[in-house]
Design brief:
11 strands; 53% strand; mainly beta; seven-stranded mixed sheet; globular
Amino acid sequence: QVQLVESGGGLVQPGGSLRLSCAASGFTLDRYAIGWFRQAPGKEREGISCISSSDGSTYYTESVKGRFIISRDNAKNTVYLQMNSLKPEDTDVYYCNANIDGVNYWGKGTLVTVSS
């Protein structure tokens, strides 16, 4: 059974850092591209970063480029999102995603709140 579980969210002051984790089970994570998305209430879910399965290449949306780093630990079957220089506008629920054989799988999300 495919499962994705996000963790690591919380309350952080502007300029601070958090590291989110996406633990996968039921499939081998490094065989698929994994994405991080975020969503605020009433807004569409936004893709912010992904890491490929083949060569580990990464993508970042412009708003997080230079501040967020996506990485993968194959031994732990986990993908991370290191978030630095956090801003209040980064406040959202963060989700990880895997598309496996045409089916999108999502975790339940982890809330990140950036506030002083």
